[in-house]
């Protein structure tokens, strides 16, 4: 499994002959290393509807003739663009191919999606478990700390977790450390920080704290990758 950080909370995940982009926020993001038209994927996966996670979902899906996989309410709203969508719900799994699947888990966060400048309720925010062969990624999405992260870690053999640390809109670094520990993952990628002033945090400090609890942190710059 190869994971490329594309800024904010966006990850490009490759493995077992498939490419998935999670939470594409590229246009309008000054640190994004790629433009939406440069993305080649087999599916777009959304954790929730907020603009900084979904703004390029429809355009990428349309240009790649691939589906947007999201919770049912959000999928319906994205589908108004003409993009192909697949609606799922919390606890459900979508199979993209042999050995490749996306499972949705709960997250504690709000969710809305704009259509023609009007914000609409976009269902419950989600985390996603991406399985590619024998490797598993847990992208927490935007979330507060909640105790069932420990259960999610017990139910899935998670190799790497993407954990929001920005505070203000999600949990902050201290709670993110506990969330990371609960996943049981060997590798941790901090996400959702330093894009905007309210979520300014030190990724270096967070990674150093992870080492103290025997986890390997990876503060990826936009465009950087890790292969596990």
TrEMBL record:
Keywords tagged on the record: Hydrolase
Keyword set includes Chloroplast: no
Keyword hit for Hydrolase: yes
Gene3D superfamilies tied to this protein: Ribonuclease Z/Hydroxyacylglutathione hydrolase-like
InterPro entries for the chain: Metallo-B-lactamas, RibonucZ/Hydroxyglut_hydro, UPF0173, UPF0173_UPF0282_UlaG_hydrolase
Reactions mediated catalytically: 3',5'-cyclic CMP + H2O = CMP + H(+); 3',5'-cyclic UMP + H2O = UMP + H(+)
GO molecular function, one term: hydrolase activity
Cross-referenced SMART domains: Lactamase_B
Domain Metallo-beta-lactamase: start-end pairs: 7-192
Domain of life (superkingdom): Bacteria
PANTHER family (UniProt xref): UPF0173 METAL-DEPENDENT HYDROLASE MJ1163 (PTHR43546:SF3), UPF0173 METAL-DEPENDENT HYDROLASE MJ1163-RELATED (PTHR43546)
Protein family membership: Belongs to the UPF0173 family.
NCBIfam families on file: PRK00685.1
Purpose: Counteracts the endogenous Pycsar antiviral defense system. Phosphodiesterase that enables metal-dependent hydrolysis of host cyclic nucleotide Pycsar defense signals such as cCMP and cUMP.
Protein name: UPF0173 metal-dependent hydrolase ACFP56_14415
